[in-house]
Amino acid sequence: MVAAVELYFDTDATRRIRVLWDALEAEGVQSLRSLPGQRHRPHVSLTVAPRLDPDVVAEALAGTVVATPLRLSLQYAGQFVGRVLWLGPSPTPELLDHQAAVHERLASAGVPVSELYHPGRWVPHCTLSMRVPNALMAAAVRRCLEVLPVEATVAGAAVVDYARDIVRPLT
Q1: Helix or strand or coil: residue 47?
Q2: Which of 3, 29, 129, 153 could be cross-linked to 52 through a Cys-Cys bond (beta carbons 3.0 to 4.6 Å apart)?
Q3: What is the mean pLDDT of residues 66-84?
Q4: 35, 68, 115 from 4: Cα distances, Å
Q5: pTM above the 0.90 mark?
């Protein structure tokens, strides 16, 4: 399990992605909705690490508006190795600059994060499923295409570590 700094969406975008989670479940694809604890919210992670101390992260990000009201336009479906299915927001300069600023604050404070989340390597995405069965991938992608585009505004942020039952809101 990993910890993350997550950006959350406005109510309408959150509802639309939760409806997509339900549609994926109806196809036999386990979505984030049905992961243990059922605590996941639709989000884009700015960074991930094996473990994040929420106090250290909050201190490193003090004075930074993590939940800045960025406009996100989820325009496409994607897949990572391991059959992870996601929706991708258009990588606007504002989104990329915001992620780089958060990364820089964490790096300056000595907070180690995954190399895949370093600026220039980060692929902004909203995970839908962690492991889509190969036989169901076409149906899952079709369901994604039925809801795109999803327009969203960042409405919140948090440091999360579900393995340790941590959800600490950030401003």
Answers
A1: strand
A2: 3
A3: 95
A4: 16, 17, 13
A5: yes
Number of Cβ atoms within 10 Å of the Cβ of 108: 9
- Strand extents, DSSP E, 10-68: 43-49
33 by DSSP, 3-state: which? helix
Q: Are 69 and 13 in contact (CB under 8 A)?
A: no
Decide: residue 9, CB within 10 A, 0-12 exposed, 13-18 middle, 19+ buried. Answer: buried
Q: Give the CA diameter of the chain.
A: 47
- Summarize pLDDT for 82-103 with one digit per residue, the tens: 899 999 999 999 999 999 999 9
Ramachandran region, residue 55 (left: φ > 0; alpha: ψ -120 to 50; beta: rest): alpha
pLDDT for 37 beyond 70: no
Check if the beta carbon of residue 2 is closer than 8 Å to that of residue 153.
no
Q: Is the dihedral of CA 125, 130, 134, 139 positive or negative?
A: negative
Q: Which two tokens stand for residue 131?
A: 């492991």
